[in-house]
Design brief:
The protein has about 170 residues and is α/β, with parallel strands linked by helices. Helices cover about 40% and strands about 15% of the residues. The chain has five helices and four strands.
Length: about 170
């Protein structure tokens, strides 16, 4: 039997790590990895937190003292579109390639779902896809080709999950 991805999810806010959130996050990570052509078993660690928790992480890791919706901390520097396909980066103890960590503010999930006029389920999936793409080397620092490439991949993966934008909807 082929080894599967390992996606541990922890939460430091009540109710965030419910069964439906965890199932959605794992499905979204697996779908994104498959869509990006990842052929080796990987580990992606997920933290579900609130605005204060993500603010503390943002302050400690990036010296930015404000909350944000999602933070991504890649283990390796991959090139967008060139994911790990060999086990060269795998942890010898587990056989898994550690892609990195993500932290998601569940308060931002709820607020942004309201702001953009869609479900919390869609917003959570969007942030997970966004983070996975960061772990795989995508970025959006410019307003040009890099951002367009990342947005196109986000939309394609969300379409696979049947979580597309509504007609006339917002940027997300």
């Amino acid at each position: 039997m082929a080894k599967r991805h390992y996606i541990p999810i922890t939460a430091d806010v009540p109710g965030a790590s419910g069964e439906s959130n965890c199932a959605l996050i794992r499905k979204t990570v697996r779908t994104a990895l498959e869509a990006e052509g990842v052929t080796v078993p990987c580990e992606v660690d997920v933290l579900l937190t609130g605005d204060e928790g993500i603010r503390a992480i943002n302050r400690e890791m990036r010296n930015i003292d404000r909350p944000t919706d999602v933070l991504s901390f890649p283990e390796f520097s991959y090139t967008p579109g060139c994911p790990p396909v060999t086990e060269d980066d795998a942890d010898p103890a587990t056989g898994l390639t550690p892609l990195g960590d993500m932290a998601i503010s569940m308060e931002r999930v709820a607020a942004q779902a309201r702001e953009y006029g869609h479900s919390k389920r869609r917003e959570l999936s969007y942030l997970v896809v966004h983070s996975v793409l960061h772990l795989l080397g995508y970025d959006h620092l410019d307003e040009g080709p890099q951002k367009a490439q990342m947005r196109a991949r986000e939309e394609a993966i969300l379409a696979e999950l049947q979580l597309t934008r509504r007609a006339g909807g917002s940027r997300r």
